[in-house]
Amino acid sequence: MFMWLLSQDRLQTRALLMQKNVIDQSTCEVCGQHEETQAHIFCSCGLASQLWNCLGIDAPLQPDNVLSWPRQDMIPSEGFSTFIALCCWQLWKSRNEKVFRNQATGLHQLLQQCSAVSVQWGFRLQPSKRHIVQAWEQAFESARQGEG
């Protein structure tokens, strides 16, 4: 459901809520600098930019078509769109932590959360496909090792 909402530009961002006259300001609560649109949350907000840079992924300006994102060699092509969905889901959850609980998520914590969720998602795969999740875990670990 989340990815469908993302692909339809229907997530309840501050920009969308302002457009619907629910709120009167659309500034991102995570960075406090730009309008909170989907593109901002998942591609250009500081935490998102750090995540994609750490993972070696060149995020496009719009998050809507994850199938067209350039793949990093460490991630198998078979599970790449799911890998991007997992990262976007964790970015959304970290955004919600800031909005609803006023708790900021750092890059190291985000990478740990992505890794933990990847393990959980891996249990839904057939044993012959578990190597995909192992590659995800390795990518998150490498990113954690490389980020300062």
Beta-strand percentage range: under 5%
Helix content: 55-70%
Gyration radius, rounded: 15 Å
Q: State the distance separating the first and last CA atoms.
A: 34 Å
Count of DSSP strands:
0
The total tally of domains equals 1
User: From the helix content, strand content and strand pairing, which structural class follows?
Assistant: mainly alpha
The largest sheet, given as strand count, sense and whether it forms a barrel, is: none
Q: Can you give the mean pLDDT?
A: 91
Instruction: Identify low-pLDDT runs.
Output: none
Shape: globular
Reading the helices and strands in chain order gives: HHHHHHH
Count of runs of 4 or more consecutive helical residues: 7
Describe the model.
By secondary structure, the protein is mainly alpha-helical. It has one domain (2-146). It is 57% helix and 0% strand. It is globular, with a radius of gyration of 15 Å.
Topology of helices and strands:
Layout: H1 2-7, H2 14-19, H3 38-44, H4 46-55, H5 80-101, H6 107-122, H7 130-146
Helix pairs in contact: 3-4, 5-6, 6-7
Q: Quick recap of the structure?
A:
The protein is an all-alpha fold and 148 residues long. The protein has one domain.
Provide tags for this entry.
single chain, 7 helices, mainly alpha, 148 residues
